[in-house]
# Entry
Amino acid sequence: MTHGIGQALMEQTQYQYLQPSDQNKGLPQPPLELAHDPAQALIDLPAPADLPDYPLDLRTAIEQRRSVREYAEEPLSLEELSFLLWCTQGVKETRDSYATLRTAPSAGARHAFETYLLVNNVEGLRPGLYRFLALTHKLVELKLDGDLAGPLTAACLEQPYVKTSAVTFFWVAVVYRMAWRYGERGYRYLHMDAGHVCQNLYLAAEALDVGVCAIGAFHDQDLNDLLDLNGEERFVIYLATVGKKEPSP
# Structure
């Protein structure tokens, strides 16, 4: 087996090679959430406490879970989107200003992701790009551009379900939020955390009878450019399409 970049990452992020983290040095931690431009419109989502009960046996959800790449034309409701956002990055508790406890696990409660959304077909939302503000359970409008789905699909190796989904979740890693505590080893934890979040999406979607397909194949630089990310401090780490399932024949 060739000794490549992946193996080098695993070797060089072992504990014996790590330098003291910025937390160890007493440096201030980064904010729990990225700031947003106050000129950008905020959209209230149905509050988690007010959402309908979507009962589903856990074993059933696990056994039924599968990737779905073809979606019906029926839109996702704002309540359903709110539920999926809550299940993937919902804030259950804020510990002063230093940590959040959320619906998905994260190394050291760092929760280093921001959720960007390509909205194609959601009731009450114009097509375009949004970001989820987890601390207040709101959306902020970023780019209301109906043509954005095309370039984002191209950046995802032309996988058509990015464009035909009701909504596509893009999980953006804010590296320093994790690295402040764990240094270079934090890159390992970012990838682990991405798996936790996406699995929550799959299981929550089963409660709604909604389809999900996780995507790890994309042109990193193209996707980061489209989301105005520099690719170093912030970058797309994972994404998933979501949409109503086609009726069974």
Summary: The chain is about 30% helix and 20% strand. The chain has one domain: 29-244. Residues 91 and 102 are 4 Å apart (CA to CA). The chain has a mean pLDDT of 96.
